[in-house]
Amino acid sequence: MEKSYPKFLLNHQELKAFRDMRKMMICSLFTVIALTLTVASVSAEDSLRTYDTRAIDGFMDGMDLESAGEYDRAISAYKRAISFDPHAVDIHFSLARLYLLLEERTLAKQSLLNVIKYAPRSAEALELLGEIAQAEKEHDLALNYFRRILDIDYNNDYAILQSAKIYHTVGDTIREAEYLIRLWELDTERVAALQRAESIYLSSNDYARITELYSKLIKRMPTKTDLVGRQIRLFLGMNRFFDAEALMDSLIEVAPYSKDLQSMKTDLVKVMHGEMAAVDYLTEVVDVYPDAWELKLKLSQLLIDAGESPTARSLLSEILEIKPELPNAVSMLVWTYLDVDDLEQARDLLLDYLPAFPEDFFLHRLLGSILHDSAVQNPDSTHIQAALDAQRAALTLRPEDQQTLHMIANTLELSGKREDVLATYLKLIEIDAEDDLALNNYAYLITSGDVSEDTLRHAAEFVERALLVNPDHAPYLDTAGWIYFKLGHVQLAREFIDRSLSINPDNPEVLMHMGDVLEYLGKSNEAYIYYIRADKLK
């Protein structure tokens, strides 16, 4: 922030007029001049004295010379003026300002100290001294100057801001936060200051201070739900559940119609008393506020999570009668059928509603998922093609959605279109080079059957990339082991497969792979044990 220096009340024209009239002035007029030239914070006693007329002459000469750009002569004039009246604080201040203009920091500092000597409550001089100390990295001295300003004016925002900056520089973030909060209290538009203070307290796990901060903020803005949410999350993180509940209840008394508050209270009840308690609480709320469809949607989700799909279904149907334009209500209604494995009803319901939401990506993807599951149960060309059509419709809306592309790859595998599957995995890897599932599946797929050593080495590179992303994923370890086995690195293969089984010991395919490795090593008896275990798990 650029610092603007104070302007004097007497401009050059006024000073020139005064010069012409000076010989006609009487002593009482000097008092007026002294009051004009004196810094506002000078004591009453000092402000009532008169200046030496020679000092006034020198001061006016200095002003004229400074205006003309003759800085050296202006400095001489100011010094001459001060020699006649050492107590003239405005002249000291003018000299300091000129020294700062010339970047003579040491000389400016001395002049400002002279101002403080005769006018110890001069905020302008203290500010400049503080800035000089900051520039010279004398942080303690700078803080002292700004503290003196705040003793004079507690709400001086410039001194508060500079103090915060200094504490930040020296690494005292707790004190920095204190001053930032003071700054925000002066001007609530300074959101960045508040966020910085909050971040400091959270990163230092200073729960006492952050709790105090939230409490202060909530008292000032009792219906600001994001603040309430932060305070409640903090209480929950500290296992202070009853404090969280008490806070929530007090706020709901203030704003009982707040859907956000009621939603948070429901979440809190769920954490403290369980899913069904949350269902009971929210049921009572929606009975009181029957038009609160957002809360009814939340209640529907709670019912689904609690295994009460029929009740949820009834509620969602009621919502869609009133608000048919809600795609999330449709998807939840579909889930009430998926929850009981009724794929056919879920599919038919979704097909009924989809024409109303032609651009809703999530509904299209949900249909693709349902039809994929149907194709798994009935892997004929009709079911597979229906699934692919729905999935590609979703992909048209979001061409690089990874979840949809993985779904397409899985459906294509049902059709036996190996090259199309490989192409889909390569597209996924192109979109995200760290898509570990695509990397692994591509590697495994290209090694199926009799393949060349070059292909196996190519596959090894892909699975190694997958393991860099997820080094302890059992299926990836097995893929690597099986590829190395085919490459003839039998001991290495055994190590990878053994690591895979240590993570998931009951995977029949991996058990078979270990059996094959042991059989190759001539350990038939051990291999037989793995084959038996695999057979039992199939």
Description:
The chain is built from 31 helices and no strands. With 538 residues, it is mostly helical.
Keywords:
single chain; 538 residues; mainly alpha; 31 helices; 0% strand
How far do the termini sit from each other? 73 Å
Largest sheet: none
Helical amount: over 70%
Number of DSSP strands?
0
Give the helices and strands, then pairings.
Blueprint: H1 12-21, H2 27-37, H3 44-47, H4 53-67, H5 71-84, H6 89-101, H7 105-118, H8 123-135, H9 139-152, H10 157-170, H11 173-186, H12 191-203, H13 207-220, H14 225-237, H15 241-254, H16 259-273, H17 275-288, H18 293-305, H19 309-322, H20 327-338, H21 343-353, H22 361-377, H23 381-397, H24 402-415, H25 418-431, H26 436-446, H27 453-469, H28 474-486, H29 490-503, H30 508-520, H31 524-537
In short:
The protein has 538 residues and is mostly helical.
